[in-house]
Write a structure and sequence with these properties.
Order of helices and strands: EEEEEEEEEEEEEEEEEE
Distance between the termini: 43 Å
Number of domains: 2
Radius of gyration: 31 Å
Number of helices: 0
Shape: rod-shaped
Structural class: mainly beta
Largest sheet: 6 strands, mixed
Strand content: 35-45%
Number of strands: 18
Length: about 220
């Protein structure tokens, strides 16, 4: 949403650093984590406790920039118990990490425009690991005859894909873990031509990764 003037401060509630009272002084510098604090809109966002009593904004204190000024000079023995600054209560602000559940999302509210499809590159080796969460769309270039391990962190109903590429030598083979299920229980034979790729797509049923499609001998550039 666009705003005329300064964008409102939203959501986050802040407890400012403790302030030591100076005898005969009314104005004090407000800080958060030792940095001068100015992230507020108006004095009504402040909860200020002096000697255990909440102070009335404007009547008992004012704020300007990073300075809070009490209506009268404070004296030895006075205690500023706390200063808490409230965010704009009209807006929710930014939720904290791991606080938004799927139940809070309206059905069909997440579109493909908001889903990342970055292609991960698996590490080539005698045995190849595959993380179904962080590497759901991936590729690997075979530098020798290899074994593909079972994907980790799979969720029932999930689709994942892998592009298996022959290196500049070609004729590399791939042994599939038993968790991969192919039609007639027959694993595919890879393209042998150097630098070509074979694309496989799987769906997880909670036990096995079922092949749902493949395209072989793909020219990649």
């Amino acid at each position: 949403m666009a705003y005329i003037g300064k964008t409102p401060v939203i959501g986050n509630f802040v407890k400012l650093d403790a302030i030591s009272v100076v005898n005969g002084q009314a104005a004090y510098t407000m800080q958060n984590a030792s940095v001068n604090f100015t992230s507020y809109e108006n004095v009504n966002q402040f909860l200020v406790s002096l000697n255990g009593i909440l102070q009335a904004p404007t009547d008992s204190f004012t704020v300007s920039g990073s300075t809070i000024t009490f209506a009268s000079n404070l004296v030895t023995g006075d205690v500023i118990n706390f200063i808490i600054v409230l965010g704009n209560t009209l807006d929710i602000g930014t939720p904290s990490d791991n606080t938004v559940s799927t139940a809070k999302l309206v059905n069909d509210s997440v579109t493909t425009a908001k889903i990342g499809f970055n292609e991960a590159t698996l590490t080539d080796g005698a045995t190849i690991d595959w993380d179904a969460v962080t590497q759901d769309v991936c590729k690997v270039t075979l530098g020798g005859n290899r074994t593909l391990n079972a994907p980790t962190n799979g969720t029932a109903g999930q689709f994942i894909s892998i592009l298996v590429i022959q290196d500049g030598t070609g004729s590399r083979t791939l042994t599939w873990n038993a968790v991969y299920e192919f039609a007639s229980d027959t694993a595919p034979t890879l393209t042998t031509t150097a630098s070509l790729g074979d694309l496989f797509v799987f769906r997880y049923n909670g036990t096995k990764w079922l092949e749902v499609g493949r395209n072989l001998a793909l020219t990649l550039s």
